[in-house]
């Protein structure tokens, strides 16, 4: 592989104008496709195989033409202190407001609370349910203004009015201003790392191209493939992070090869041949983690994972082609300022520029000093890191999965205030009613069967009230609501759902009918259980595939095993941190978490998939340099120091960049995005700085030669993949021999070489 990528990098450097224009053309083409493509559908969240989803499917079949996905609003009216909403003046104000809302052009129904008995027992609060014929994003400004104006008129009459539901909900922003701050922090990290504006700007430029192509492609294919608009958020988040990191890796290797005395073209080719190999396999591990999300069986999650995986593939292609092409334009500009200054002085003195700079990889830098420290104390470093992550992971034992709604929004929003008013007036469970779908097709008397089931469910412990049943036109199916005594995310509500399902046979005995429990609360409960059930199989498949991939790359059994165990430590510690902040409330105010509660059902699976890929990124970046030093003759401990000397700066910079990018999403309004941003940022922190820079070198120091052990029979079975550049070393040796022969025939130095291709005279690497 190294030889193929070497040629690819050489060609991209030589034909840099063509490569750059090709990517500009690709970006323009997908951008035009995105602009012309129809809007992505409002695909509803589904959880195939669960009872709640089966009930929804039955509703769609038995109640044709219903607009279940239409927008809705819950208008809550609260009487002034000491008054009742049923007082004549207050009642008139409520009815006037409801009548005005009902006159809207997109309104399907607006229920009068006094006719529907939607008034609290103490008479202080009433609510009107408004249903719309269009989804929330398609509601016109006129429709929304009608709703808000009617509410304001009731407020002017002295009532407190709040509006819940989806009608006025805004589309959550991915990260807002904080995302821009994250990118700015990444730019500062790049500038400090490289000491060059060009070297700092190049990764940002190529990452923008990667994200631009990926997001535009998702938008262009959104309608065709049924991709929701939220699919782009994960793609953008990962595309920025890996796009910057992969470019950083190749640029760092280019600068190192330039320090070895190679010409710009040769340095670029070698950088792509060696660091590019690491990029390919790092990208593959990310793709495996994301594509593996399809194992969960949630269509939305599968589409998000595949779309993000596609963006990561684009980032890899950009790193292997556009980055070397841009290096051709900025051959000297990406070098540190001190190196450029030294080259200018050397040129004035007549010294060859290629030999004027010292190779930073040979200097004893912070990475080498850290490696020497770990080698002197490998066991204490290993134990301290493992125990520390283990302690941070303890809160994960209290992980409670669920889905937050309006209760997680800040109290400054009308949705949150409406939620609180309803909970205060009607009970904690009012905001999460259970929907009971009764299939009475086999009953001799459907109405009697539904009445019997309704009475028994009403008498069940934990059920506060049930609504009147609503039959379909055929009269064989009925729907009613059961209000729990506890809040939607309360474990007692989960137990109630299980009770209603477990006691189904006794409740329906003698009726000839059956029922299913669904509704938003039941869907959230089913989602959490499905994700928990899929987590272990998902881990097995993803870790197994990555184990095989890393075994092929590093020709070792213990290296991929250590990588997998390190990943588990970092992801468990990250999940523990998420539980501590979002469930227990530690540092919640600092991060803008307005309401603690359960962890989003999809959060663990997201964390495992994404963090796994990123963790393997750092593993490949770091261990490939150790492996490269080892196969070129270094002793195991010397290889550890060599790997840390050349990779620590890159890994630290890459980790800080990812942390900055992910932290930018903590500023999102959407709780799921906020949680993912925090979880990924803290996971990268643990994995890069604790696992890869502490546990990995300590484990290598303790294992020694055994770290690279692999059975001979297995070594023969595995395909040979060269990412350490052994093929390039042989190529360099052959080139040196050829150059020596040609020089013996009187060839002048540099004769026949094109710009940037002057012959290299560096000594070939020693192959072990």
TrEMBL record:
Transmembrane segments: 180-200, 207-228, 234-251, 272-298, 304-330, 379-401, 535-554, 566-587, 599-618, 650-668, 680-703
Broad class of where this protein is predominantly found: membrane
Keyword presence, 4Fe-4S: no
Lipid bilayer topology: Multi-pass membrane protein
Family that this chain belongs to: Belongs to the resistance-nodulation-cell division (RND) (TC 2.A.6) family. MmpL subfamily.
Protein species of origin: Streptacidiphilus jeojiensis
Stretch list, region Disordered: 344-364, 734-768
Protein location: Cell membrane
InterPro entries according to UniProt: Acrflvin-R, MMPL_dom, Mycobact_MmpL, SSD
Protein's recorded name: MMPL family transporter
Keyword terms, alphabetized: Cell membrane, Membrane, Transmembrane, Transmembrane helix
UniProt keyword annotation of Cell membrane present: yes
Domain called SSD: residue spans: 204-329
């Amino acid at each position: 592989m190294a030889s193929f990528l070497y040629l690819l990098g050489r060609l991209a450097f030589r034909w840099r104008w063509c490569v750059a224009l090709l990517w500009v053309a690709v970006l323009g083409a997908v951008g035009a496709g995105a602009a012309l493509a129809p809007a992505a559908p409002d695909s509803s969240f589904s959880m195939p195989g669960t009872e709640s989803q089966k009930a929804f499917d039955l509703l769609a079949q038995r109640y044709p033409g219903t607009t279940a996905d239409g927008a809705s609003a819950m208008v809550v009216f609260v009487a002034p202190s000491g008054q009742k909403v049923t007082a004549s003046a207050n009642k008139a104000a409520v009815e006037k407001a409801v009548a005005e809302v009902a006159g809207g052009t997109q309104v399907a129904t607006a229920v009068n609370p006094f006719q529907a008995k939607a008034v609290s027992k103490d008479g202080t609060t009433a609510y009107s349910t408004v249903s719309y014929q269009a989804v929330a994003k398609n509601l016109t400004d006129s429709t929304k203004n009608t709703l808000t104006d009617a509410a304001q008129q009731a407020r002017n009459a002295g009532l407190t009015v709040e509006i819940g539901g989806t009608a006025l909900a805004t589309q959550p922003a991915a990260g807002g201003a904080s995302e821009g701050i994250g990118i700015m922090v990444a730019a500062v990290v790049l500038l400090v790392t490289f000491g060059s504006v060009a070297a700092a700007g190049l990764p940002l430029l190529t990452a923008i191209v990667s994200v631009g192509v990926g997001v535009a492609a998702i938008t262009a294919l959104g309608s065709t493939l049924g991709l929701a608009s939220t699919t782009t958020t994960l793609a953008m988040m990962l595309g920025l992070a890996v796009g910057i990191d992969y470019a950083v890796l190749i640029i760092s290797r280019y600068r190192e090869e330039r320090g070895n005395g190679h010409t710009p073209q040769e340095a670029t080719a070698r950088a792509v041949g060696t660091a590019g190999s690491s990029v390919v396999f790092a990208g593959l591990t990310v793709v495996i983690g994301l594509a593996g999300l399809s194992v969960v069986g949630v269509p939305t999650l599968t589409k998000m994972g595949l779309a993000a995986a596609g963006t990561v593939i684009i980032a890899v292609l950009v790193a292997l082609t556009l980055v070397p092409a841009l290096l051709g334009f900025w051959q000297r500009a990406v070098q540190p300022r001190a190196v450029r200054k030294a080259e200018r002085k050397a040129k004035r003195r007549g010294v060859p520029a290629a030999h004027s700079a010292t190779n930073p990889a040979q200097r004893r830098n912070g990475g080498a000093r850290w490696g020497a420290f770990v080698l002197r104390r490998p066991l204490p470093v290993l134990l301290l890191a493992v125990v520390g992550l283990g302690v941070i992971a303890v809160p994960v034992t209290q992980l409670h999965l669920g889905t937050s709604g309006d209760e997680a929004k800040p109290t400054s929003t009308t949705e949150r205030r409406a939620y609180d008013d309803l909970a205060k007036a009607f009970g904690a469970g009012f905001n999460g009613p259970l929907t009971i779908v009764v299939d009475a097709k086999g009953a001799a008397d459907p109405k009697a069967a539904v009445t019997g089931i309704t009475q028994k469910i009403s008498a069940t412990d934990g059920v506060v009230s049930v609504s009147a049943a609503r039959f379909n036109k055929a009269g064989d199916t009925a729907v009613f609501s059961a209000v729990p005594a506890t809040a939607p995310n309360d474990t007692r509500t989960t137990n109630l759902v299980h009770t209603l399902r477990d006691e189904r046979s006794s409740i329906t005995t003698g009726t000839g009918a059956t029922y299913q429990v669904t509704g938003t609360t039941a869907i959230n409960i089913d989602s959490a259980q499905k994700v928990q059930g899929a987590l272990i199989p998902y881990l097995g498949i993803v870790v197994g595939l990555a184990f095989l991939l890393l075994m092929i790359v590093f020709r070792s059994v213990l290296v991929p095993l250590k990588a997998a165990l390190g990943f588990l430590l970092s992801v468990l510690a990250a999940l523990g941190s998420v539980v501590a902040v979002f469930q227990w409330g530690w540092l919640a105010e600092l991060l803008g978490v307005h309401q603690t509660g359960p962890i989003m059902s999809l959060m663990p699976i997201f964390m495992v998939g994404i963090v796994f890929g990123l963790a393997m990124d750092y593993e490949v970046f770091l261990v490939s340099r150790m492996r490269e030093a080892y196969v070129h003759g270094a002793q195991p401990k010397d290889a550890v120091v060599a790997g840390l000397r050349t990779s620590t700066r890159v890994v630290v910079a890459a980790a800080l960049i990812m942390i900055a990018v992910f932290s930018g999403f903590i500023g999102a309004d959407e709780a799921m995005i906020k949680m993912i941003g925090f979880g990924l940022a803290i996971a990268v922190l643990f994995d890069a700085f604790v696992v890869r820079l502490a546990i990995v070198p300590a484990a290598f120091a303790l294992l020694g030669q055994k770290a690279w052990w692999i059975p001979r029979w297995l070594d023969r079975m595995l395909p040979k993949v060269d990412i350490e550049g052994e093929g390039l070393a042989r190529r360099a040796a052959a080139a040196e021999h050829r150059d020596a022969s040609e020089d013996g025939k009187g060839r002048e130095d540099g004769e026949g070489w094109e710009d940037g291709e002057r012959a290299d005279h560096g000594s070939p690497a020693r192959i072990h």
